[in-house]
Amino acid sequence: MKQLYKSWLCNWPILTLALLLVGSSCREEDPAPDNAIIEANAKVNSWILENMEFWYFWAHELPGSPDKNLEPDEFFQSLLSDEDRFSWIQDNYQELLNSLQGISKEAGYEYVLYKDPDNSNNVIGVILYIKPGSPAETAGLKRGDKFTHINNTQLTTANYQEVMPEIREDHTLTFTPKIADQEAFGSEQTVSLSAVQFAENPHHLSKVIEIDEKKVGYYVYNFFANGTDTNPNIYDNEMEDIFEDFKSAGITDLVLDLRFNSGGSESAANSLASHIGKTIDATKVFARRQYNPGVEEAIIDDPDLGPEFLVTKFLNKPFNIGNALSGGRVYILTSSRTASASELVINALKPFMEVFLIGDVTYGKNVGSISIFDDEDPDNTWGMQPIVVKVFNSLDESNYSNGFTPDVEDKDNRLFIEPLGDPDEALLAQAIGQITGTAQTGRIMPGGESREIISHSLDEKRRSFNLVIDQPHGSTILRP
Asked: Where does residue 264 fall: left (phi above 0), alpha (psi -120 to 50 degrees), or beta otherwise?
């Protein structure tokens, strides 16, 4: 059986299977009998199992006789290895593909939830960043604003899991704006927000900060994507422009902010690392891939792929700034949500330069997935994102399943936070201190005590914690 495995990017096909349509003798207006539901589930579940038997990284652990009468999401979960924290399935594959490109229905703000310091039964939200061009920006919301109510309902430890999903539709937000340059909030306000189908740009912010004869490039990159369906290379081109600006400005140091970046496309990760790495070019290994034995054999035997597909090389980038960085060091800001493709970049750069991490221990994901769906069967709308590969750097290192431990640890969980790019913002201030030699160990950074996270908006995004493995146009993997 011939199968196609492709990235979700650039309109490349994705693994498809032609399946027989299941007929029904029921009239359209009659409710489907139980046996029809069971039959429909069995059809989808057979498709799931067939793909998992071939692709799944832990295919050798699949159960011998799984129950195909289960609902497809339950069936998929029943197949997963105890080692697998990451594979997932969704009942609408187009929503799956959109989410990987940063497209979702939202108002345009990311947040973190904490217990209210004044009432332990209540929950407060702090806005982490606002997306340019979104309804949230139009409404005047800013990073650091604190919110307490959604649709006039007070957030509590008992109800926040039921209330927060309401922000996926039009809603009201009761908030108090943070007062600039103060550890204080203003008067309470309520704003109405529309939830729209919104395409976030991953390049959130880039600027050059001049301090103590240093030129510091600061770059907030929030997920890995090359482009959109309508413009497949737009984000690649924008990244190129950012590093051209950095190189033209003559930056001496780079602070790469990945604290909100939970992963995405392997090729976008390669592009980023290829702009930063010291003494790298297209002859140096960016990453090595390990699949299950059956897939590796198919790759090696495929004339369009071959053994070279198991090794990804860096790219030649005209605006690479690695050799210009002081001490051959890059500073990367991290959080507990820095994951997957972000960790791939860290791991890939380590053999070539010093990678200095500031923030929290990263998530710990050294495996990648592909998007699988059946676009030839209109009755099967399911899409799945199973783990199929483990990744290594040029030294065959992949020992970060428990995350990367930062050189300077700071959980960055403060009630009062400064704008991104402000030299006084906690993690950026620490990086600048390291660059200028003025870092003060043990001092309390702006914003007061750190707090325990109850919930984080990045945890709710399907694109989070994904490394999506890409494949060159025109290639196929043949399966007997």
From this structure: left
Tell me if residue 130 falls in helix, strand or coil. strand
200-251 pLDDT per residue, tens: 999 999 999 999 999 999 999 999 999 988 899 999 999 999 999 999 999 9
Number of residues that this document lists for the chain: 480
363, 403 contact by CB (below 8 A) = yes
Rg of the Cα atoms in the chain: 24
DSSP 8-class letter at 416: S
Instruction: Specify the pTM.
Output: 0.88
What does the block give as tokens for 384?
Answer: 């799945």
Cβ distance 229 to 265 under 8 Å?
no
- Measured distance CA(120)–CA(122) in Å, rounded: 5
The answer to whether 323 and 278 are in contact (CB under 8 A) is yes
Q: Is 433 helix (H, G, I), strand (E, B) or coil?
A: helix
Q: CA-CA distance, 60 to 96, in Å (whole number)? A: 26
What are the pLDDT digits (tens) for 53-67?
999 999 999 999 999
User: Phi/psi class of residue 334: alpha, beta or left (left: φ > 0; alpha: ψ in -120 to 50)?
Assistant: beta
